[in-house]
Design brief:
Number of helices: 17
Shape: globular
Distance between the termini: 58 Å
Largest sheet: none
Radius of gyration: 20 Å
Order of helices and strands: HHHHHHHHHHHHHHHHH
Number of strands: 0
Length: 353
Amino acid sequence: MKEKIVTWIPGILVCLAIAVPAWLLVQFVPALEIVGAPVLAILAGMVVTLFWRKKPKAQAGIGFCAKLVLQCAVVLLGFGLNLSTIAKVGITSLPIILSTITTSLLLSFLLYKLLKIPAKTATLVGVGSSICGGSAIAATAPVIDADDAEVAQSISVIFLFNVVAAVIFPTLGGVIGLSNEGFGLFAGTAVNDTSSVTAAASTWDSLHGTNGNVLANATIVKLTRTLAIIPITLVLALLRIRREKKTNGESGTNVQLKKIFPMFILYFVLASVVTTVVSALLNGVALETANTVFSGLKELSKFFIVVAMAAIGYNTDLVKLVKTGGKPIFQGFCCWVGITGVSLLMQHVLGIW
């Protein structure tokens, strides 16, 4: 094991050299939050690999970052989920969340069939659009055995419509007359990535002087939506096992199960349960200390995603990505429009807007 860790070091250093500047840039230039450090890391990784020939010694560590660090990021994400808070506040958004997720997945399946989009790319774009952008793609990619190019392409598509949504949704919400509650639900259900949800809701708060209330509500709705990672990844794992059975027959199926079953998702659930139980049992200074620890782990999760995206960008052929990007972008656009329309329609039906 020690020898294996030594072989990872060069690649890890390469990923950190790309990820740390991307992370710091967003910290010191708040306007870049709308783009997000993960996207900057992917883009930087793709540019670096254009001008710097890939080093064989670095590949083991880069593979480690692209896979295992990414899974660790998903597990740590669970420490940002207090299930009791989500149950109290997020339950009202559940009909809208289920409707938007169903819409995105159905559209993705139809477009996959009609346009013959590669199955794994179509899955990643659909899941990223319907749940929580980069985090959902990070959780899903190992389950369906997607390669780095497919992950990079999906993240790029999600990023494009995140930026558009964060810029235009606060104005759109005002024009069509959404209430503060309505915009919180709209941002939380119709914007893909957490950073863009935050950007859109913060802009609304600034425009309407709501003292951060919309941001808080939108974040809780978004966290509620994040929980959909659990059933969707499990279903995808079972579908992959079923395909393995058809391809390889019954023999060897049990061996394959351990490789395909997303154990890191169970650790993600455990982290959420730990956060919920600790928050319920502690109070005062002890609770504040625990929340500080959980916040730190959540930040570490975000940083790990940036490191993993740097690895994925480094392993991606930018020229090929551009040439093959038309259909996934169209799929992302259709999902984005569909989710936006269904989110507003459901609010109207439920009497919120």
